[in-house]
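Q: Given only this backbone (526 positions), what sequence would you predict?
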């Protein structure tokens, strides 16, 4: 497996820093807390940690509103804490990935404060300023992803500025070469500090239509959907010029030897795969989010795997994401039993898996009482399911301790459930043990890391596929229903099953039984 890069062999683990481990009793996770928990992460068997934003921020969008790209928010620690964190991670053999948020800054970033100070400020053009439309209202019909117009009036200078998200998150003007140079310097600042790569926030939104044309209405819009779905995002996302930006980010990273570039991109597969660029000049991994919205149905998932594999350019390395801080947790989407099947799926598909903290212990979405809602997405568009607090609740370390061992103070969000790392640690049938076994199986079987994926098939509620490398053939069968099912197989041996006691058992040629919600990986011979 030596010819593969670490991020092709490895598994990425996302840490939402506010919620992983608090070390100072303020109820919010921090870098020292993460550092203290790194041995747990390394023992789990993942290869890299991606940490959501830790930069100085007014926290209007919990760090995705950056007020200084080259420092650490005091809430999370200092640059010295960051160094300790990165050094410790590297000592433990873990790579460090940061979140890079180039589309918008905070409205409190000095760049924006300068930009809004006057129309002739040298940084005026660093953001997207426009005169009012003919009726004196916003310049066009563009809508914010957090609800309402995407244009905010600035009385002081008599113009509007554009914000794809909150008004506290003005969009930078990526057509301005000075912005691009400043952002390259941000990348270099962190690369100089030993960062192994970046997850780039909303990469597909960076460039907007140069003529600021109105977005057309979305004929498929249904009332109750988020506001911005009323329009197609024809002129506000996935503009052709974005690919040039990706190439230039890639070139900056390549100044440091090859570091990994991952893009957050919510687009249909044919558009998504263009972000790979030509060989070596695009993103290494445009995040593949298909599983986040998948219907938990064998036929749908089989189709999705085949279509994705078929759409990838020859040089492209696939990847799969099972959870993140913006979507309901898998144990709530698919249910706690099927979350085990999902773990087997994630870790046996072809491509780099990204795992969201807490999913390895089967955390479910938390119940957030109305007076404890934190997420601006819920506060600004209440009751339509946009809130992201449920999937951001604190990591559950030890159910016998107050706040599951996350904090000595009052946690910023309530603890979701009682199950914890400590309960699951020595229980061979726990979700945590399943993840550890799967991660070790993946690490030790070249077919799972670099093998082809073949014969992706759904038989009723059972999804099956093969991973092949040289003479190794692995057969994967996932029973996605809550009843027993049968599966056709070759002769083989079960290497791992979600069902206790099945490992090491034989599979016979022909029909084999799968228990309700059972998933297995077997080594087979033809
Ligand atoms: C990305 C982040 C999300 C954030 C948004 C605006 O989608 O994942 O949490 O709200 O960008 O920065």
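A: Predicted residues:
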């Amino acid at each position: 497996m030596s010819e593969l890069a670490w991020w092709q062999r490895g598994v990425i683990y996302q840490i939402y820093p506010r919620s992983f481990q608090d070390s100072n009793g303020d109820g919010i996770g921090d870098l020292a807390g993460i550092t203290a928990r790194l041995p747990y992460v390394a023992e789990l068997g993942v290869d890299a940690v991606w940490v959501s934003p830790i930069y100085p921020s007014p926290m209007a969008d919990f760090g995705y509103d950056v007020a200084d790209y080259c420092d650490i928010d005091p809430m999370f620690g200092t640059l010295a804490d960051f160094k300790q964190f990165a050094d410790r991670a590297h000592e433990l053999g873990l790579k460090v990935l940061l979140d890079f948020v180039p589309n918008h800054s905070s409205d409190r970033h000095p760049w924006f404060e300068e930009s809004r100070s006057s129309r002739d400020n040298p940084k005026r053009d660093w953001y997207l300023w426009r005169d009012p439309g003919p009726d004196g209202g916003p310049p066009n019909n563009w809508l914010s992803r957090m609800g309402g117009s995407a244009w905010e009036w600035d009385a002081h200078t008599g113009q509007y500025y554009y914000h794809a998200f909150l008004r506290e998150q003005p969009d930078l003007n990526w057509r301005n070469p000075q912005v691009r140079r400043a952002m390259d310097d941000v990348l270099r600042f962190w690369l100089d500090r030993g960062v192994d790569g970046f997850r780039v926030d909303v990469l597909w939104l960076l460039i907007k239509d140069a003529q600021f044309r109105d977005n057309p209405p979305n004929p498929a819009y249904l009332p109750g959907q988020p506001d911005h779905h009323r329009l197609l995002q024809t002129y506000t996302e996935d503009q052709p010029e974005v690919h040039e930006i990706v190439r230039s980010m890639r070139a900056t990273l390549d100044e440091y030897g090859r570091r990994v570039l991952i893009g957050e991109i919510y687009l249909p597969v044919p558009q998504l795969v263009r972000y790979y660029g030509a060989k070596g000049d695009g993103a290494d991994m445009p995040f593949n989010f298909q599983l986040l919205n998948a219907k938990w149905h064998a036929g749908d998932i089989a189709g999705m795997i085949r279509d994705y594999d078929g759409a990838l350019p020859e040089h492209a390395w696939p990847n799969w994401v099972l959870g993140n801080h913006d979507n309901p947790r898998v144990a709530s989407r698919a249910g706690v039993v099927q979350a085990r099947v999902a773990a087997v799926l994630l870790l046996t598909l072809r491509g780099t898996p990204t795992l969201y903290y807490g999913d390895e212990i089967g955390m479910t979405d938390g119940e957030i009482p109305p007076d404890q809602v934190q997420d601006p997405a819920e506060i600004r568009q209440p009751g339509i399911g946009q809130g992201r607090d449920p999937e951001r609740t604190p990591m559950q370390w030890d159910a016998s301790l107050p706040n599951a061992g996350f904090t000595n103070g009052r946690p910023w969000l309530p603890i979701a459930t009682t199950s914890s790392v400590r309960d699951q640690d020595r229980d061979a049938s726990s979700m945590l043990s399943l993840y550890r076994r799967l991660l070790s199986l993946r690490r030790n079987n070249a077919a799972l890391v670099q093998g082809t994926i073949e014969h992706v098939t759904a038989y009723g509620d059972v999804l099956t596929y093969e991973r092949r490398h040289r003479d190794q053939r692995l057969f994967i069968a996932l029973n996605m229903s809550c009843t027993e099912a049968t599966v056709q197989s070759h002769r083989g041996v079960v290497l791992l099953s979600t069902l206790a006691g099945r490992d090491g058992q034989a599979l016979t040629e022909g029909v084999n039984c799968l228990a309700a919600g059972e998933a297995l990986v077997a080594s087979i011979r033809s």
